[in-house]
Amino acid sequence: MNPLSVLIVDDALPMREALAAWLGKAGYVTRTAGSGREALDSMQNEPSDLVMLDVKMPGMDGLEVLERLKAEHPRTLVVMITAYGSIESAVEAMKQGASDYLLKPFDPEQLVLLITKLAGQMALIEENERLQARLAERDRVWLEDLIGESAGMRAVFGAIEEVAGTDAPVLITGETGTGKELAARAVHARGQRPFGPFVAINCGAVTENLLESELFGHERGAFTGAVQARRGRIELADAGTLFLDEIGEISPRMQVNLLRVLDDKSYYRLGGVSELQSDFRLICATHRDLGGLIEAGRFRRDFYYRINVIGIHVPPLRERAEDVPLLAVYFLNRFAREMGKPIEGLSREAMELLAGYGWPGNVRELRNVMERAVVVGQGPLIGAAELTFLRPPAAGNREGTLADVEAEHIRQTLALCAWNMSRAARRLEVDRGTLARKMKKYNLSKPG
Questions:
Q1: Contact 414, 444 (CB under 8 A)
Q2: How far is the C-alpha of 72 from the C-alpha of 74, rounded, in Å?
Q3: What is the CATH number of domain 395-441?
Q4: Largest Cα–Cα distance in the chain?
Q5: Do residues 76 and 32 lie in contact, with contact meaning Cβ atoms separated by under 8 Å?
Q6: What whole-number distance in Å separates Cα of residue 152 and Cα of residue 161?
Q7: Domains in the chain: boundaries
Q8: CA-to-CA distance for 360 and 148, rounded, in angstroms?
Q9: Distance from C-alpha of 214 to C-alpha of 234, rounded to nearest angstrom
Q10: What is the CATH number of domain 318-390?
Q11: Which residues touch 363 (CB under 8 Å, ≥6 apart)?
């Protein structure tokens, strides 16, 4: 964990320097401000965990600064210090949210003990908040969207349980929309750091320069536009999980930079000179063929082996068609409940349409389809009328030879019937033998 940061606010320079020296020896990171206005500006640029605040200062006094601090930074702890202590000012400070009150002069050991006690209180509060949030998240992540009874999904669930007990890097592969981030969250929730933060970033959604700043953070003035210091995702993931989605999109240079972090969990902010530490678990995901990228010289082999200690593959929805009804009903119930619509289920024809569709957008597309169906649905059941955009186009509207039209129409019908030949033959109004001969003629077979 990173050390507690303390802002010391006192109009007397000797007092500021003495406090900074005492707390610095105790392992705390300190900054100083000589006035209330300077303190508020400093907190705006880079908030501190705790503020040591003098009561009597020219201009804006300590009680006024305290009020502003608690309004703008409610999680920051404040200790009031003064040589003009009184019961009245102490009571007023505590009413406004001060954590404690010290009278000058005070013993350095007494000061350090107080700060250590407050740091412990802060850690307990944060741990309790994380516990409550992650308990809810743990149940939510394990159930929401990551649903299936197919062999492919049972393999995913088994892999998640196996890797959760380790702290090794995990690489999750699969097409876009299959639920790779949900699998990553499940690994985190079932793992050794369930109450730590889960920090995610899509590496393909930002430019390389911005990605470097997002990951490593930067100091004020590190580059044009860096008007204040900023913590990076690596720092924020301390004691938790760092999830790098679309890892196949990062440059070889960024791969080298991340290799250094993975070796000893140390790094520097952009423009910084102080080495920082972050203890995180790494989970990466990609829809790209990293092996092919390695052969093309666009992905480092050593980085690949570093992130791929354990692999999990999330299958596309078309390879687990038996999960479509389960997912469809789940999403229908969820959106009907959210929209307050009395929709009870899916008609048989609607379920056949869903089961027979190819789902190029995978679970994400199914989720969107069901949301749209609930939006337009009026009756107690979602029928084919609410899913017309999933129907195969009429053969007469297609271009090509008669054989091309017939082949495509048969393929679409087979897909619509989940490649059940008997059901498809009935829809086509031919016998099963005729359909088998047509399939052989046009070289039609079930995908996968």
A1: yes
A2: 6
A3: 1.10.10.60
A4: 100
A5: no
A6: 15
A7: 5-122, 144-315, 318-390, 395-441
A8: 18
A9: 8
A10: 1.10.8.60
A11: 145, 177, 178, 179, 317, 327
Torsions phi, psi for 83 (to 5 deg): -95, 0
Average pLDDT over residues 26-47: 90
Dihedral sign of CA atoms 173, 176, 181, 186 in order = negative
Question: Which of 412, 398, 397 is CA-nearest to residue 442?
Answer: 412
Closest CA to 284 of 179, 401, 201, 374: 201
**Kind and range of the H or E element at 43?**
helix 36-45
Distance separating alpha carbons of residues 144 and 201, to the nearest angstrom: 20
User: Is pTM beyond 0.85 here?
Assistant: no
Q: Give the rounded percent of residues in the chain with a pLDDT score beyond 70.
A: 89
User: Same topology for domains 5-122 and 318-390, yes or no?
Assistant: no
Torsion, Cα of 319, 320, 321, 323 (10° steps): -160
Query: Collapsing DSSP states into helix, strand and coil, what is residue 413?
Result: helix
**What value, to the nearest 5°, has the Cα angle with vertex 318 and ends 312 and 322?**
95
Angle at which helices 402-416 and 348-356 cross, to 10°: 120
Which residue type is seen at 30? T
Q: CA 221 to CA 229: how far, in whole Å?
A: 8
Query: Tokens standing for 6?
Result: 């303390």
Alpha helices in 51-204 (DSSP H): 62-72, 87-95, 108-143, 151-164, 180-190
| Coil, strand or helix at 214 | helix
Residue 156 CA to its chain's centroid (Å): 19
CATH fourth-level superfamily of 144-315: P-loop containing nucleotide triphosphate hydrolases (3.40.50.300)
CB 356 within 8 A of CB 418: yes
**6-15 confidence digits (pLDDT tens):** 999 998 898 8
Q: Tell me which CATH code domain 5-122 carries.
A: 3.40.50.2300
The mean pLDDT of the chain is 84
C-alpha 104/C-alpha 448 separation (Å) is 77
